[in-house]
């Protein structure tokens, strides 16, 4: 009898510990207290499935004209700049391939992307990594090919348009770097592997300027001999000035001949 009581007491303690741990996990997942009053929605597409949460609190959400807001309506996830109409997304957002592999994962806060967002290729290789803050892309963004090799690194501030974009080859080696100023390319730097097997910046070849002495030396005065006119006398033609005919007029003296 005593042994059976000990057995049931152990079961009871296991259940109690599991219940406490589940509460702690739930508390960690829902740091924002408003997410606890969100409702879950599912959206099915031809090649993917979305699980998301919508806000249903009483807070009035103000929108900004330059930001994209994500919302749910008519069994679809929509996004519009500067406003929304329907249930605004708030909380975890997960998109799956039809084989249940992860496609996209991130979080929304009152319709705006917030925190780290990741996406994956079919087969599980990472596709992209982004960081958002109140609907604005911040920090470095990484993009990869389906073999897991980095293809692009971007860090451009949306407000100023300043930053850089790095492009990589299929092997994951840095190919070029574009420096941006006010959303326009200001400078382009290319890279290649040098003789030592290290990646180095390719500097443009310098054009050698000829000195004044070399220029004078190479300059040939008119009338000098060249391989083409060797042995031939070169005569410069003098321009002939046209002769002007002066007509003489006979002066008629009053009372003279013919008077």
Describe it for me?
Among the domains are: 38-137, no CATH class; 149-203. It is 14% helix and 41% strand. It contains two helices and 14 strands. The protein has helices spanning 2-29, 212-218; strands at 39-44, 48-54, 68-73, 76-81, 87-97, 102-109, 112-120, 126-133, 136-144, 150-156, 163-168, 174-181, 184-193, 199-202. A hairpin with a 2-residue loop joins strand 8 (126-133) and strand 9 (136-144).
Keywords for this structure?
259 residues, 2 helices, mainly beta, 14 strands, single chain, 14-stranded antiparallel sheet
Topology, please?
Elements: H1 2-29, E1 39-44, E2 48-54, E3 68-73, E4 76-81, E5 87-97, E6 102-109, E7 112-120, E8 126-133, E9 136-144, E10 150-156, E11 163-168, E12 174-181, E13 184-193, E14 199-202, H2 212-218
Antiparallel strand pairs: 1-2, 2-5, 3-4, 3-5, 5-6, 6-7, 7-8, 8-9, 9-10, 10-11, 11-12, 12-13, 13-14
What is the structure about, briefly put?
The chain has 259 residues and is mainly beta. Helix content is 14%, strand content 41%. The termini are far apart.
From N to C, what is the helix and strand string? HEEEEEEEEEEEEEEH
User: Any low-confidence stretches, pLDDT <50, length ≥5?
Assistant: 23-30, 249-253
Number of helices: 2
Span of the ends, CA to CA: 178 Å
Helix share bin = 10-25%
Shape: elongated
- By secondary-structure content and strand pairing, the structural class works out as mainly beta
Query: Proportion of β residues?
Result: 35-45%
